[in-house]
Amino acid sequence: MEMGIYPYFREIDSHQDTEVTMSGKKVLMFGSNSYMGLTNCYASGTIANATASNLGEAFKADAKGNNSGYPLLAWETEKEMFDGEGTEEKPFLIKNASDLTKLAAFTNNKTTAEYYANKYYQLTADIDMSGIANYKPVSYATSMHTVQGKAFTGTLDGNNHIIRNVTMSYPTYGATHGIIGYLGTNGTVKNLGVENVTVNGAAATYLCIGGVVASLGDSTTIENTYVRGLKVTTTADAATFVGGITGRTFGNSGKIKNCYATGLTYETKKTSNLGGIVG
Question: Rg of the chain's alpha carbons, rounded to an integer?
């Protein structure tokens, strides 16, 4: 054997701590898990009785067996919030108002938006939002297109279903009001009905309000979609961008195809930038 330094490992018989048991003897532990406080790291199978409850809030139980029953990091379990896989062939399924508000919350959080904002979603039923006091849109933005998390660049397929009774009120400069706040590059909404939307923008200026999408970016598509009933009330002295389908477009390559909007009521001080389809 060549001369040199060879690592030698001895098995720890107890749980990780500042004092551990090795070969039946108590010894001090100077490993990184001790002095750096990395107590939430483990390798599958090396810790006896490792359960989510005794590992702390950083871990969740492996309910679906994705990690052979061992606990998962909390952020991993967020990917299990919807049935489906988020692909075109197996989209995430939006079954009710709770699922829609979860999608909105995930796209409005910078940590989770990276994963959720560009996936495929499909409604499985009509959704009544009357139980949500103030719906915050998917990919909500202020200043008309400054998103809190990430612009929605995925696909929302209504699957010939309807979202009803949506109430929104975000009286902030340039706030976006719609099922989706900002639809970004390659984002698509299709086969969706939206009925009975109410927006109270108070005195905030430059609001973007659409029955489906508030702000529409480049290379986006809204198709086979309708709005029946959009009531908007604002008292702002500056412009408000309101449209039955979308409030405002950014760029020249967004497409609205085979869509209509009826039952529109706009109570605004400024009458410019108001439209039946696009504001």
Answer: 25
CB 168, CB 194: distance < 8 Å: no
At 198-225, the pLDDT tens digits run: 999 877 888 999 999 999 999 999 999 9
Tell me: pLDDT of 24 over 80.
Answer: no
Q: Is the dihedral of CA 108, 114, 118, 124 positive or negative?
A: negative
Q: Residue 154 contacts by C-beta under 8 Å, 6 or more apart in sequence?
A: 86, 116, 117, 118, 119, 120, 121, 187, 188
Summarize pLDDT for 91-124 with one digit per residue, the tens. 999 999 999 999 999 999 988 898 899 999 999 9
Rounded (5°) CA angle 203-207-208: 155
User: Distance between CA atoms of 171 and 28, rounded to whole angstroms?
Assistant: 59
Q: Can you tell me the distance from the alpha carbon of 199 to that of 241, in angstroms, rounded to the nearest whole number?
A: 12
Helical segments of 187-266, H only? none
> In a 10 Å sphere around its CB, with 0-12 CB exposed, 13-18 middle and 19+ buried, how is residue 143 labelled?
middle
Instruction: State yes or no: pLDDT of 43 exceeds 60.
Output: no
Chain mean position to CA 176? 15
Is the model's pLDDT at 149 over the cut of 70? yes
Strand pairing class (141-142; 146-147): antiparallel
Q: Are 71 and 52 in contact (CB under 8 A)?
A: yes
Q: Are 119 and 85 spatial neighbours (Cβ–Cβ below 8 Å)?
A: no
